[in-house]
Structure formats: C-alpha cells, structure tokens
Amino acid sequence: MCGRVIVKTTIAGLVEAFAGVAPPAPEEGLAAKPPSWNGAPRLTYPLIVWQRDLRGPVFVAGNWGFVPAWQRDPAGGRRPINARSETVASAPMFREAWRERRALMPVDGFFEWRAIRGVKQPYAVAMASGEPFALAAVWEEWHDPKLGARVRSFAVLTCPANAMMAEIHDRMPVIIAPEDYERWLSDTPDPRDLLRPYPSAAMRMWPVSTRVNSVRNDGEDLTDPVPDPLTMPEGNEPPEDGEPPAQGRLF
Fold first, then answer.
1. Which of 19, 142, 144, 211 could pair with 149 as two cysteines, CB 3.0-4.6 Å apart?
2. What backbone torsions phi and psi does residue 243 show, to the nearest 5 degrees?
3. What span, in angstroms and rounded, lies between the C-alpha atoms of 125 and 114?
4. What single-letter DSSP state applies at residue 246?
C-alpha cells in the first residue's frame, strides 16, 4: 500500500515540473501549502485532473481519502486511501471514478515499511533523478445538498511491487510515466495497461529514521539515510533517532 508521501516541491515548482498543466485557481488554496516530508492521509495535496472545459490538465486541491458521492457524511464511513489496480475498474466504490475521474498525485517520494526483528523500519522511495513524479489516482467530489459544500477526495492506486520494492513489500503505488500523463487523465481508450510496476532502474530506495513512523514528525531531516538494518548483524540495529552516515541526505 501507499500511506505516507514526500511533497517538498512548492506548487510553483510543480507547475514548472509538470509542463502543460494549468496552474491552480486561487480558491484551491495551494499557493499557501507548506512542503511536507511526512505527508499523511486525510490532508490536502496538489492533484492533477482533466478539465473538460479546458480540454487539458489542471492543478486542483484534493483530500487524501476517497469519499464516494453517495456517502451521506464525508466524515463518516470508510475513506480508503488506496485502490487496488486489479479491482479498481469493477469495485462499486471506485468503478465510476475509474471511468470518469482519473488523476495524478505529484510527489517527490513516498515511504514504505518492513518489519525487521520486531521494528517497523521505514524506507524512502524516490526517482533516481530526484525529480517529482506522479502517482495514479482516482478522485470523487462529494456534494452537501444543504450547505452546498464540495469535498474533492482521492485514492492512490497500487500494483504488485517491482524488483526493488519487493525487497521490503509486495505492493507499490502505480507510477505513471510522463509520456502517459494525457492518456491516463483523458477520455482516451482504457488505460488499464498502465497499471504496472514502474521500472526499478529508474528509482532508488534507502532506509530512514523511525521518526517517520509518527505523523507528528516532519522536516527535511526525515529523509536522511540511516544504516540499513537488513545488512546489519542482529543486535547492531541503528538507534531509533537514526544517525545518518557521512553522505548526508539524498534530497
């Protein structure tokens, strides 16, 4: 699954990095959003959706945690943060969003965990180039008929892990390559073939401090590498605050 992300690039930087995507309207509130090195669900993030009026992609704000349109109260019921690529087209909660409302979630990286000798060891995952990239998502808009409120929410799609990710977990988020952005977002033929593991050679992964395990912690130092418990003899695990090795942070 995918449950924590790194979004350190500002919205201005994302607009520059994702050329051809229209900037967000001021009312989306993304200009004031601070960077996050430990982004959790239920928070608001930049999202790229297809704007039919513009016949092109645009940045909007979305809340991570899918709220179906038929739900009576967005604060109640399930709010899944992930959707399985194998069933997203047929699952009652997601199938309409799959057909009509596919999205991209721009990130600088994400975290995944592996249990090592009773400790949940986090690993940061990013592109080898260090550039922002896009996770596949589906989105929905919930309407409050009494107050007229609108809640835009989304879930990130997952697929089987590639060879690199398989070292720590059996699944990973679906990553869409830049050349496939328009096809993924628009009403072109079924893009189900894009729901596949991203090539390991284009990515990198490194262990980070267990401070990431708490959503209360944030800051650039959370991406500093620490000694990998997978390669250390039992009993020599790094301390929980994870002293980084000499090369320093990778971001």
1. 144
2. -65, 125
3. 13
4. T
Type of residue at 247: Q
* CATH number of residue 23's parent domain: 3.90.1680.10
- Going from the C-alpha of 246 to that of each of 209, 225, 249, the distances in angstroms are 15, 9, 9
Amino acid at 225: P
Q: What are the residues whose beta carbons fall under 8 Å from the beta carbon of 149, sequence distance 6 or more? A: 143
Q: What is the pLDDT of residues 96-135, one digit of tens each?
A: 999 999 999 999 999 999 988 888 899 999 999 999 999 9
Q: How far apart are the C-alpha atoms of 79 and 190, rounded to whole Å? A: 26
What is the predicted pLDDT for the residue at 244? 36
Domain count, the chain: 1
142 lies in some domain:
yes
Residues 14, 46 contacting (CB under 8 angstroms): yes
Residue 121's DSSP bridge partners are 114
The answer to whether 8 touches 220, Cβ cutoff 8 Å, is yes
Spatial separation of the C-alpha atoms in residues 164 and 177, rounded to whole Å: 18
